[in-house]
Amino acid sequence: MTKNEYFFRILVLGFLTAIGPFSIDMYLPSYDAIAADLHTTTSQIGLSLASFFIGLAAGQLLYGPLLDRFGRKKPLYIGLSLYIIASIGCMAARSANDLIILRFVEAIGSCAAAVASVAMVRDLFPVQDNAKVFSLLMLVVGLSPLLAPMVGGLLTTYFGWQSIFATLAGITLLVLLAVIFKLPETYKPDTAISLKPLPIINNFIMVLKVPQFYTYAFAGAIAFSGLFAYVSGAPLVLIDIYHVSKNMFTVIFACMAAGFIGFSQVNSMAMRYYKSEQLLKAALTVQTISGVIFVFASVNGWLGLAGNLFFIFIFLSCLGFISSNASALTLAPFSKNAGSASALMGALQLGIGALTSFGVSKLNNHTAVPLAAIMGATSVLALGILLLGRRMIKNKVEVTEGTAVVMH
């Protein structure tokens, strides 16, 4: 693989991975405009975000077996096409219910990109390079909270909120063309894989029974769910409680993303000297300590806007280490059924993320305490699962910069 091929493949995989996050972040600043146009409330429009999360979680399980049965590209064509059609449908929505349903369908389509991109990392690159590649993908994904809210706000102001979905459809069409003409098929279809419900369920159960999978998948998913809590809770805390302007909200969102992106790249460099296991444990420990302090300070009313932003920044920066290393360690034992493993990992991330997102909205008491409590709880629980689960792994496939070895 030449350097140009390496760069282009990571770029395309990065854009595939970013479709979901862009779909979430780009329309956040337009809640008020959408609600006014559809004659409803911002809370009702917020349900379209919840339906998107639910669609993402459900779609993960749908595409896993399809990617293993038919190869990576054909299901990807179908999913991206569905996403484009649903995005055009969102432009024509005439009620909140229309938008909620169409966003669910849109999410089902975007799942193909999310699952395929992760599986193709496992296909295209040696296992010892996976954590590094995931870190590079985070650089592309990190553009979402940096650019998407700003672009969404500008599009809404000058062209109306419908232009957001037109833009998403257009970008996805370009990505689809890149996949068709430039990205190689990375996996030979396995006709032995059944698409009947029972064999599919048994295959997921087989993956779930692997100690290395459930340890790192659950630890990573629970820690990462704090990000979903932040995305859902940020408008409530920053705009409703601290009365931050929409422009300042975009700036804050970008700064938080910078922490996540920056430390994901620090993780890539740190992989030269440390194992993924070491980096994951260290990041979860820091996140847990800061999370506990965040909760305690919030409950006692010691934090203003700056204090809340400080602890959120620490939390998201730690995710720059946690996400890449947890993903690499979760998928390291798999080759034949990496698609199913990737799908199950993604479903756990999004399913748990949907719960934390829903929890922030339901527990909203016009303070930052619910957000702090959920973010703190996710870090504590994730670290506990990591420490306990490691004892169950007898033959661990470790990930380092230079080698991938089985640890006994």
Please describe the structure with a list of short key phrases separated by commas or semicolons.
408 residues; mainly alpha; Growth Hormone, Chain: A; 79% helix; membrane; transport; transmembrane; transmembrane helix
Walkthrough of the structure:
Helix content is 79%, strand content 2%. It is an all-alpha fold and 408 residues long. Helix 1 packs across helix 6 and helix 6 packs antiparallel against helix 13. The chain has 15 helices and two strands. The chain has one domain: Growth Hormone, Chain: A (Up-down Bundle). The protein is globular. Strands 1-2 form a two-stranded antiparallel sheet. A hairpin with a 4-residue loop joins strand 1 and strand 2. Keywords: Cell membrane, Membrane, Transmembrane, Transmembrane helix, Transport.
Which structural class should the secondary elements be placed in? mainly alpha
Helix content: over 70%
How many structural domains can be distinguished in the coordinates?
1
Shape: globular
Biggest β-sheet: strands ordered side by side in the sheet: 1-2
Tally of individual helices:
15
**How far apart are the termini?**
32 Å
Work out the number of β strands: 2
Largest sheet: 2 strands, antiparallel
CATH superfamily placement: MFS general substrate transporter like domains
Brief digest:
The chain is an all-alpha fold and 408 residues long.
Give me the secondary-structure topology.
Elements: H1 3-25, H2 31-37, H3 42-70, H4 73-91, H5 96-124, H6 130-141, H7 143-159, H8 162-182, H9 197-208, H10 211-241, H11 246-270, H12 276-299, H13 305-331, H14 338-362, H15 369-389, E1 396-399, E2 404-407
Antiparallel strand pairs: 1-2
Helix pairs in contact: 1-5, 1-6, 1-7, 1-8, 2-3, 3-4, 3-5, 3-14, 4-5, 4-8, 5-14, 6-11, 6-13, 7-11, 10-13, 10-14, 10-15, 11-13, 12-13, 12-15
